[in-house]
Design a protein that fits this description.
This protein has 397 residues and is an alpha/beta fold. Helix content is 26%, strand content 20%. The chain contains eleven helices and 16 strands. Strands 5-6-7-4-8-9-3-13 form an eight-stranded mixed beta sheet, sandwiched between helices. The protein has a three-stranded antiparallel beta sheet with strand order 11-10-12, with no helix packed on it. A three-stranded antiparallel beta sheet has the order 14-15-16. A hairpin with a 2-residue loop joins strand 1 and strand 2. 34% of the residues are buried.
Amino acid sequence: MSAPTTIDLSSVLLHYAEKACQGEVRSLAQMLPLLRFEQKPFTLRQHYQFEPFFQLKLPRRSVLMTARQVGKTHNVSASCLLRAIFRSNYHILLCEPLYAQMKQLSNVVLRGMIGDSYIRPLLQDGGCVNNINMRELRNGSRLHFVYCGGDATRVRGISGIFLCLWDEVADMEMDVINVVAETMSAVPLGGTYLFTGTPRFTDNTLAVLYEQSSKGVVHVRCGCGKVNIASPGHDLYRMIGKRTCICVKCGRPLDVRQSWYEFERPDRRGLFDGYHMSQVTHPLHATDEEKWYELLHKMELYGKAQFDNEVLGVPCDESVKLLTQKDLEEASHGRPNTLAAAMARRADYSSVVVGVDWGGGGKALESFTTMAVAGYKPIDGKVDILYMERVPVGKTA
């Protein structure tokens, strides 16, 4: 009986590096077989719509707006890990709004991918930092993890980042994102921005970023010749059939694996690429009878806003949300914002209420504690804003 053949695992990386230099590797997706998760080989067979995120060179900015449970976190994480594997000293910052989300991403998703990888001995050894805040690889690349929903303090001190991923960016504020992005300011070309998440309102951070992008929408051609456009402004709602995704013209089932992206703003391609993904055209849901039945059940069970957000992956304002300063200013109808003017108008309203947002001391000496006085007119059923104030820092009465 012959001795087992010893494989030099470093030759695996060298093989792919040489193919990349020769132009034979056009996508990191070709290298996915090196990765496993929960002992299963990683593949895009059910998640082919993520292929753009495995390009060898990503645009400076990309945004992915998706429904829930379409494989977003695992596929984008796999893309980040492969970039760290095949480029030495390539540092990536992965941001989540909450600590629990960061813990899941670091301790479960990325640690699992590294630990299950076929080339695990090449990736880490005992000398590599390997904890919830950092996964270091033997080639010098690092994966940093932070949570920064409303505060960028935790990223201060991190620098030299080549790619920054903001996951669940709908729960992050733009001023925080801007501070986090400064971790990339010293690297060549300024780094790569990658935003992902599930939307809520039309003025939410994720929805705003998507509107700034090239706005890639899934298209599916039917045998009858009709090209079905999976966006709410076109065919998306009518593509929901009784058993699967259907053609809005002839009603026949669609082969969602034959779909492709078209861009509503092609002038933004390569600068700020955007992609939208719903459960309706996702093979994981559209080709599974039980999952499709669950999708139909959610359509009856959920309200419109929740169904649009969670299943269709589109923003919707038909839900309760926080009022913005602009909303309050519009409700004041341009009247003077003084206590004297508010007292003079008090008699015009049957009810007057005071709302206070105890936001605390704020930042840069600007208070987050605000108040608004609202009056209700039963005749026309409208609520007017009589007075607004941001309470100064240190004011106690």
